[in-house]
Fold:
Amino acid sequence: MKKIFLLFFVSALFAGCATEISLEDAIEEIAWDISASLEEDSEKTIVVSYFIEDGQISTLSDHINNGLTSKLVEMLTWNELPHKVVSRQALNQLMEEMEFQMSALTDESSQKELGKQLGADLMVTGHITQLEDEDLYRLNVQLIEIETAVVRGGYIYDIWSD
Structure:
């Protein structure tokens, strides 16, 4: 119970803060938020998919994917939640087997099909948009139920490029 209270306290604290943060801080906050949103769920399998920028897989996608996967596993383990996270290697291997082209991943239905093939219940994906200030980007992340396409959570952060 202590862990749940701490999780909600930290999430509430961050929710009230300014949204212009570093990418690393955004990744950690997103992992906290997703973990908190899964408190009441039975065991789910989660895949962290690619992040799109200007209609293509972003150059930041690998960094976000790997960081968010690791942080999410850390948060789920720390909170003793039963959920599993599919590894990035499994995602890449399936893409090769299915002969997915990277350009196909910009299509939401292709990403959902990939999630189904991985046996995932939930997918974390998103978009990156450069804002007017060249050093500022908006990271828009969604937690989506693969079977129904229902968006379970949305997280928006303005991040400074390093």
